[in-house]
Structures are given as C-alpha cells and as structure tokens.
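Exercise: predict the structure of this protein bound to cobalt (II) ion.
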Amino acid sequence: MRSLVSHLRPIAARFTPGRAVVVAVLSGPIVGALLAFGTVAAEETKEANVVTIDNFTFTPPEFTVAVGTTVKWINHDDIPHNVINKDKAFRSKALDTDDSYSFTFASAGTYDYFCGLHPHMQGKIVVK
Ligand code: CO
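Solution:
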C-alpha cells in the first residue's frame, strides 16, 4: 500500500491543468491497482465459510468445502429465513435479522438445502 501511495505523490506534484489528461491516463491504472488491493484486503478479512442470506437468496448458491468444515449461514434480510437440508442432515430454527446457524460437515456428499419459509430459496453445499 505504501509503495502505491508513494507513486501517487510525484504525479500529484506534477499536476497542472494543462496536464490533466496525462494525469488522468497515468492515474487510471494506479487507481485500478488501489481498488484491486482494497478488494483483496476485504476478501482476507471476510469470515471464511459463510453463506449469506440477502434478498431471499443464498450466496454463494453452491459452495464446496472440505470434510470437517463448519459452514455458517447469516441472515441479512429483515424477515426470517431458515436452512433445511432436503435429506434432513441439518435444520436451523427460523433466523431473524443477523442471526446465524452453523453446521459442521463430517461426511462427504452433496447437501441440497432450502428455506422452509420460502421453498424457492435453494442452495447446495458440496463436501469433498
Ligand atoms: Co426464506
């Protein structure tokens, strides 16, 4: 991060109205690099193995994990949802806003699940 910022300073120092186009062209890739860096940093701080529920949608809809992984579902909607495996391996209670449910997958397999309150909401955990 520091090296990117230090590259920005000389460009800012050279900035004059006549050079605005040159600066804009030069700073495009740098801004892009900064944005990319920010995205990577955000990914690193994001909690691992989480399925979010937003706008009646499980994200990611299909998630592959290793045997022994604990997956956590978090409801970000302002209405309740739950998480029910079609083969009855797991079933959460109704999750209110920001409530979460965790399940540890001890066996390999494909686990299709849905929201019992809105059965069109569907997702899948693949355990390998
Ligand atoms: Co639902």
